[in-house]
Amino acid sequence: MKTRINGDWVVGYENGGHVLYRQACVVYDGDRIVYAGDDYRGEADRVIEAPGCLLSPGFIDTHVHSGHRALHKLLTDHGRADLFGQPYMDVTIARSGTRIQGYPNYLTKEEAQVDPGIALHAAFTVSELLRNGVTTFVELGGHVIVQEALWRQCEALGVRGYLGPGYDSGRWASDDDGNLTRVPYPDGGLHLFNDAVAFIERVERDPSDLVHGILVPREVENCSIDILRRTVAAARDLGVPMATHAGYNVIEFYETVREHRKTPIELLDSVQMLTPALNIGHANFISDSPRLNYSGGRDLERMGKSQVSVSHCPINIVRRARVLDSWKSYREAGVNMTIGSDTYPRDMIMNMRTASYHGKVMSHDLTAASAEQVFEAATLGGARSLDREDLGRLAPGARADIVAINLGRKDVLRYGPIWDPICSLVECGVGDDVDLVVTGGEIRMRDGRIPDVDLGGLRAEAQAFAEGVWGQVQDWDPLRRTARMMCPPSFCPDCE
């Protein structure tokens, strides 16, 4: 069935880049786009009117972690200074002899199968992404059971997921005083790697385009040379992309230099992992960063020459007093910039705005990280990172992944007069402005409502689950802090 969507503006695609049309339409037949522009003369079986809307490719979130706000996703403005603002080290490393409630990596397979939080987290995550106009996402390294739950939600809600169980060769552990050490696994993590490969092989056999595999060695400092080399070989054999966290924290940077006499980026290069198939999570602490005072490094040059992708998660890192230094330099070096949410809110529009503002400040150039550049990163950049020429664009032959963003809402004055809808979107928009989401030619959300998903009920369920977690934080926290001590509520005089 041929469907036509009429909008006030359409982000089309010509000559390798986006182009904007006024009073235009997108037409799709089945799961493929057949037309995007302002001069369609053909017939359509169905017409959807989207007055006041910008019709855009679905957003591609290249850095997602399944979950909600129960742990570090709540801890804005707080964290351990001795961990240099790294949230996962603060709240997902348990005191010796204890386990973190609600964190899948501490569960056995049998426990994970019946844990109520895993299904809840997956439903919350995929629903939030869909509500915010994300039609494709990359999950960076959750437990196998987490990936299974996400797979079910991708199929149920019609969101495209790149899923890959995370693996490494050891993990961070804490003693009773909060001091961290790295503890290797007896087999160097081979069992985790094999589980990931088996999962990906199963995913790749699935005929649906809604699920795909990706190899994710979680954090570069916790991965052996052998595991990294196995990743490169498996990516080649399976034909899937790779992702990892690298250049994301001061501790990780210096641990890698101490152990290997290489920066994290140099280490990845040494095992031939720096390729266009690699998505590096964050990469904001690289040798070129003045914050590291590291002399003689050429990480940015290496990344650019290899045409790697960086999943830039601006809201996450700026909350931890960190920044990318700088957007303009990364782009000029040849790095493929993409946008990820990583943490809450999973709002790609807000992340585009944050990337733009800080890109300008850190580049010392008001023309840097322009609205069109960050919009491109959230669409075409994400597609390039996955080697998908059929995503991130509204062009004949591309997948019918379309979002309608209502810039003409009559219940807000946020947008004001609109001269350039892309600038207005980046400067003034939020994810709640997304009215319509189509993936693979199927309407997945309309008028801001997802069929069969009670967002209010889902949020209430998440709140109840989170309160159960917060009441027990002191049972596993390395410093025996309560939730109120870890994250003092605002205007709380007795929380000091």
UniProtKB/TrEMBL annotation:
It holds the Pfam family Amidohydro_1. NCBIfam families: PRK06151.1. Residues 55-443 form the Amidohydrolase-related domain. Keywords: Hydrolase. This is Amidohydrolase family protein. It comes from Pigmentiphaga daeguensis. It comes from the Bacteria. Belongs to the metallo-dependent hydrolases superfamily. ATZ/TRZ family. The keyword Hydrolase applies.
